[in-house]
Amino acid sequence: MKNPRQLYSSIMMQGFVIISRNYRSNPKVDFRKLRPMILKRIEDRAKDYPVKAMVPVARDVLMSRALLIQGVSTLLQVIPVWSCKFCPEVYIGEKGHEIKTCRGYKRHAKNKLHEWERGGINDLIVPVETFHLKNTFQDVIKHDERFDYNRVPAVVELSLQAGADLNAEELSSTKLECLGAESLSNDDRRLVAEGTLRAWEVVRSGVQKLLMVYSAKVCKYCSEVHVGPSGHKARMCGVFKYEGWRGTHMWKKAQVDDLVPPKIVWFRRPQDPKVLDDKWRSFYGHAPAVVDLCTKGGAIAPPKYYCMMKLQGLPANVPFKPRG
C-alpha cells in the first residue's frame, strides 16, 4: 500500500497528464478573429479617458509648472547658480563648494574638486521629454516611426492626456510678470520665492496624483520616459547601444522623481562656513535645488525637508568634549 505522500504525488501527476492532453488536443487560437475584439475593447476603454475628476488636477499642474519656470528664471537673476563642467553637480551660492565629489568626464580623475561655471534653469529644473501621442490608446510607436512624433516635456504630456488644455486662457493669465529681479524689493522677492516654492510642491503632488490614474513608463537603464499604457519601441537606450539588445528600452513603472527630478544639492546652513570644505562634509545637509533656491530668496522650506537639510545639526569644526 502506498503512503499518503506517494498517493498524492501520483494523483497530481495524472492530473497534469490529463490537462496537457486536453491542452494539446485543443485547436490553435486564431488571433485574426480575436484582433477585432481586442481593438474594440481598447476603443471602449478609451471612452473612459480622460477621467473627469483628474482634469482640475492636470490643469493645476500645467499652471503651476508655468509659475515654477517663471519664478526660477526671476530668482536666477539675483542668486548665483554653479554647475560643474565635468559632472551633473550643481551648487547654489556666492561661490562653489570645495567638496571632492566630482564624478569625472570620460577619463577624468574621480572624486576631485569641481570646476564651476555659471548654471542655468535646466540645471535646477531638469528637462525630461517624451513622445507626444496623438491619442492615449494608439498603437505602439515603432523604431522607424520615432521621427513622426514631437518631443514634449513629460509633465506636459501627462497633463494633456489627463484632459488639460495647453491653450487655456487661465494658463497665460496666471504667469508672473517678466520683471527684472534687480528692480524688485526684498518683500517682492520673498513673495516670488514663496510662490515658486508653492508651485514646485503643487507640481510634485499633482504629478503623483496623476500617476495613480494614468500610466507612465521609465527605462531601467537610462532616463527615457514614456507616458502611455505601454512603452515605445524606439531603440534609443545608450546602455545597450553596442550589445545584443540593439538599444531596446527595459520599461518599468515611472515615479514622480522620474518625471520631476528633484536634483539634490548641498545645502549651506547659517552655521556653516561660506565655502563648504570637504573635511566636514558629513555635517552638511542636502535639499532639492528648487527648494534651496527659494530659501535663499527668502521663503521658508516645508518641514518635510528639515531632516534632509540638517537645519538643527551641529556646525563644522565643533570641539567635542569627552564626558568625565
UniProtKB/TrEMBL annotation:
Cited InterPro entries: APO_dom
GO molecular function: RNA binding
TM stretches of this protein: none
Residue stretches making up the APO domain: 83-168, 218-303
Domain of life, per lineage: Eukaryota
UniProt xrefs under Pfam families: APO_RNA-bind (PF05634)
Record's protein name: APO domain-containing protein
